[in-house]
Write a structure and sequence with these properties.
The structure holds two protein chains of two kinds.
Chain A (H helix, E strand, L loop, with lengths): L4 E8 L7 E8 L2 E9 L6 H5 L7 H5 L7 H16 L5 H32 L4 H7 L1 H22 L8 E2 L2 E2 L5 H5 L2 H19 L13 E4 L10 E4 L4 E2 L4 H4 E6 L2 E8 L10 H8 L5 H10 L11 H22 L15 E9 L2 E9 L5 E7 L1 H20 L4 H13 L12 E7 L1
Antiparallel strand pairs in A: 1-2, 1-14, 2-3, 4-5, 6-7, 7-8, 9-10, 11-12, 12-13
Helix pairs in contact in A: 3-4, 4-5, 4-6, 4-12, 5-6, 6-8, 8-11, 8-12, 10-12, 11-12, 13-14
Chain B lengths: L6 E6 L8 H11 L6 E5 L14 E9 L7 E5 L9 E2 L7 H10 L6 E8 L16 H5 L4 H20 L1
Parallel strand pairs in B: 1-2, 1-3, 3-6
Antiparallel strand pairs in B: 3-5, 4-6
Chain lengths: 432, 165
């Protein structure tokens, strides 16, 4: 008898950043179709920005995401500054790294402890995990709170910060505001180490991919705001050439554009696994010692072990933030003066979920002529589908519910921006 | 935190329009000395998790969207499934319901927890005014008419709840 077709459908619940679902159709062990369905309504931000003052851009694009607004602000101001030929002083550059540390901390702490860890410990949600793992969950909440506190001090508020400006900041924090954060960040560094050791002890599925890892690489620092675009296949690209190397494609089942390498049409992976894989030698000293201790080979191709990469980046972010906090002296210049001029600027920075590319064309009155924004989650969509095609034949013997859970778990390891809670997906299985 | 006792009143809000409601309630109860409960203003529900140690009664007030007419008042005693249909006015981070559920799982939630919600209008334009040191009456002008009218009775009912529960 011919194999019957099975359809695994995972429907999504609405969340702040959008909706996502999953459709898998297989016949026997053969996967006929995989669709990561993103229903996220068209955001229209690129069109919304046209005609707006380039000084409004950072505050507008921050609204794209409540979890990683800093990433959008950073890519935006860097691109606009390149268009205008603005060079910010080292003190501003350092504070921008500090701000990014806050965002990585709050985003990674949430995902590691409440969204991803339950998958490894047999819980169906962060809530049920909290009942039996109070210490770890409370540690995660406290780590996240310290990330938020840094965003409040430097960004003006934790959600959609309002202090990032073209040329610098609207206001610099006072020395005492910064110093007050130091004790919590000293605790945070130790706690992040404990978290990384905790997650490294999880049991990981034996599933590894030969990823084309893509991230920024910088000659002497772990990448956040600057660098060239590198990949495991030897790419070494100026950010301004992003659109020549990476192509966006529309697919019928997603309102977010997929991205592939232009020459090969192959998917690629951005995010913590890619960043650590391409930059592990630039991590902070404590994170590098942890790498040695944990005996994991980097680059790592196991998507589930992205939780370890996030742990390492938590350690790095706390350690780098502490260095900056301790050395902080308020300077007199919070923002570089500049003249309007027509131009085009490109920038890529490393959002918690991976490389985030922006391009802006500005006219001589300082108005946006065109904008292009390529977020990390949309870049990873094709890779997620590719992973699922490899995973499903391995786990197809499971019943439909278990199979759907395995698929969800793999998607969650990417920390896609469509997931606001650990088990956000309702599962429906239709047998054809 | 101000006040004494093991009762805690938390107002959740932001500086914008009707969403400021929770802060206004706390401010009025604090300044007018209407209760000896500790008082706190939170920007995000998750802030609560840091304040629950030693608290044996928690009262939370927040603006909410529950489909009812703007200015109508609702009380929920935790645990309750009635909250499932109510959207409190935060759109990011952990929701109030998720926060309370998490606090319960962590063993932090007081035995007595009450949530007071005041329905607001979804489409009332948000007024962004500068300066938190404006008087209450100036700040209240940013509220929608229905919520402005309901503020005083809302404060009174929460005050009664705090003092006579």
């Amino acid at each position: 008898m011919a194999d019957e077709a099975r359809t695994i459908r995972v429907e999504a619940l609405t969340r702040v950043e959008g909706e996502g679902g999953l459709y898998v159709r297989l016949r026997g062990r053969d996967v006929e179709e995989v669709r990561l369905e993103i229903y996220e309504p068209p955001r229209l931000f690129e069109a919304l920005l046209r005609g707006r003052s380039m000084e409004d851009v950072a505050d507008i694009v921050a609204r794209i995401c409540g979890i990683c607004p800093i990433a959008y602000q950073m890519s935006a101001v860097h691109a606009i500054e390149r268009a205008l030929g603005i060079a910010v002083p080292p003190e501003i550059r350092t504070l921008r790294r500090l701000l990014y540390c806050g965002e990585w901390i709050e985003s990674h702490a949430l995902h590691v402890h409440l969204l991803h860890a339950p998958d490894f410990l047999g819980y169906d949600s962060g809530l049920s995990l909290a009942r039996d793992h109070r210490e770890e969950v409370q540690r995660g909440l406290r780590l996240k709170k310290h990330g938020n506190a840094l965003l409040e001090v430097l960004g003006g508020r934790a959600i959609h910060p309002i202090n990032v400006a073209v040329g610098g900041f609207y206001r610099l924090p006072r020395r005492e505001e910064i110093a007050a954060l130091i004790p919590d960040f000293e605790w945070g560094l130790d706690a992040a180490v404990a978290t990384t050791r905790w997650v490294a002890g999880f049991e990981f599925p034996e599933f590894s991919r030969d990823y084309d890892l893509v991230s920024l690489v910088h000659s002497d620092e772990y990448p956040m705001n600057e660098g060239y675009i590198a990949s495991t296949d030897g790419l070494n690209l100026d950010v301004a050439q992003f659109e020549q190397e990476f192509q966006e494609q529309q697919v019928p089942h997603s309102t977010a554009l997929h991205a592939v390498r232009a020459g090969t049409s192959r998917p690629y992976l951005v995010g913590p696994l890619a960043r650590v894989g391409l930059n592990f030698d630039k991590l902070s000293p404590t994170a590098r010692r942890l790498i040695d201790e944990l005996s994991i080979d980097w680059p790592c191709g196991n998507p589930y072990q992205s939780i370890i990469a996030r742990g390492l980046e938590l350690v790095h972010a706390f350690e780098e933030a502490l260095t900056i906090l301790r050395a902080y002296r308020q300077t007199s210049t919070c923002r570089v003066k500049f003249q309007h001029r027509a131009g085009t600027g490109h920038a890529a920075t490393e959002a918690p979920r991976g490389l985030l590319y922006h391009r802006y064309e500005i006219d001589d009155a300082g108005l946006v002529v065109s904008a292009k924004i390529v977020p990390p989650t949309s870049q990873n969509q094709r890779q997620i589908e590719d992973d699922l095609r490899s995973l499903v034949p391995v786990v197809e013997a499971a019943d439909d519910q278990r199979l759907a859970e395995q698929c969800e778990r793999l998607v969650r390891s990417y920390d896609p921006c469509i997931s606001c809670s650990t088990h956000f997906l309702k599962v429906k299985v239709d047998r054809v | 935190m101000s006040g004494r006792g093991s009762h805690l009143l938390v107002g959740i809000g932001s500086p914008f329009g009707d969403d400021r409601l929770g802060w206004l309630v706390v401010g009025q109860i604090e300044r007018r000395g209407l209760s000896s409960a500790h008082t706190r203003c939170a920007r995000a529900p998750a802030d609560l998790l840091d304040w629950l140690e030693g608290v044996d009664r928690l009262v939370v007030c927040d603006a909410c969207l529950d489909g009812g007419p703007a200015g109508s008042c609702r009380r929920f005693d935790w645990p309750t499934t009635s909250l499932d249909d109510v959207a409190f006015c935060g759109t990011h981070d952990m929701s109030l319901v998720a926060t309370l559920a998490l606090a319960e799982q962590l063993g932090l939630l007081p035995k007595q927890t009450t949530i007071w919600g005041l329905s607001v209008e979804r489409n009332f334009p948000v007024v962004v005014s500068i300066g938190d040191n404006r008087g209450d009456s100036a700040i209240e002008r940013d509220l929608s008419p229905a919520v402005r009218s309901a503020l005083a009775p809302f404060v009174a009912v929460i005050e009664r709840d705090l003092n006579h529960a």
